[in-house]
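U., I forgot to send this yesterday:
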Amino acid sequence: MIPAGLPAWQTRQQRNSRTFPEQSINAPGAPRGASRAIRRHARIMERTFDSTNKPGPLSGVRVVEYGVFHAGPGASAILGDLGADVIKIEAGMGDPERFWASVGGISIALKNGQSIMYEVSNRNKRGVWIDIESARGRGVFEDLVKTADVFLTNLRKSTKIKKGLDYESIRRINPKIIHANVSGYGPEGPLADMGAFDPMGQARSGMMYLHDPQNPQLIHLAILDQATAICASHAILAALFVRERHGYGQEVHASLYGAGLWLMVSNFMCLSLLGRDPGMKWVRNENSPLRNSFVCKDGKWIIGVHHPDEKYWEAFVNALSRPELLSDPRFIDGKSRHAHCQELLEICDAVLAQKTRDEWMEIFPAHGLMFSPVQRMKDVLTDPQAIENGYVVEFDHPEHGRIKVPGYPAHFSAGQAGMRLGAPYQIGRDTDEVLLELGYTKDAVQGMREAGVVK
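Result:
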């Protein structure tokens, strides 16, 4: 259904876009039984599903995570989006991201007092609390790892070895496991054991100079953390495919530093091949009107990008109803237009200011031109193009009610991806469920709880 009162250009986009089914919030079943867990886990992977309740592409894959903050846990959240059964292990006071309440004076605390970033990093996970440094707790941990396809951690190298979470320790428990690591600067070199947060990765990779070569600026919020999480999930998926084809597990590693460089591959290659650092401050008056932004009559902005310039120049001039510009010697070709860019933009600005953004968003596409509204995040929440494609979806959150969340950005004809579970705010929310699945009795779980082994 197309909402009433939409501008005509948005109505047309809504009619032309594909409709995808609502996100399922039903989590796939999880493996059960300590001695029988691996066999049952295999049966789950073989299970067939009714097409009306599509499983995620990774349904039947189990991920065990011992991580903090976003760059690592964000990767297992993505695997959870894809249908994996993700079990987050916490100890002590829990993941410190729970208590990250503000950024630069801006509150990011939820009504329950915990950070919105904890929700972002830990959606689609079951949460358990285990003291893995106690003998009984280590036993529970190892029982869990035996059922896992993936183990993920982003603790420092020395801490992993101390806690027995390094690859050699984990693969002795489960030889075919995928052991995923996320770090600040990579597994080798002088910074291999140094911790890092998103801004440090932005700083060292050169990302902070992208928009202004003189004044470094951070890109908020947790952008590089998310890029690193995507890289880590990408590596895990590749390793799972290798195991499927060739039968062996392996260790994979992603880092903030590496992800930052990979994200800027075009900039990096300009430096490598042309000897020029392409970090640049956007200077509007140095760019063609065919690759520029404009403010409209109603104060709203649009932007257009067209290459090559010559191909679209006549259509642009006709859209502006200024045919005389075609014969104006100042604008007769691309070189001339660049030389007189300031004058040309002043003319275009005056014309664009005569109509609203919605009016221009009807005119430009009618002339075969590619323009987009410059939207704020709040505009995206009601953008029919985002809604029709499932890029913004509604989710019935057990604590926050019906909320809007980003949908998974890719579609599967034979599966469903997206948010299924809210983050485990209560420490140890799913401890009983997971341990009973491993084959522990209720009395055994209660006994370990009283001994402080689990919560």
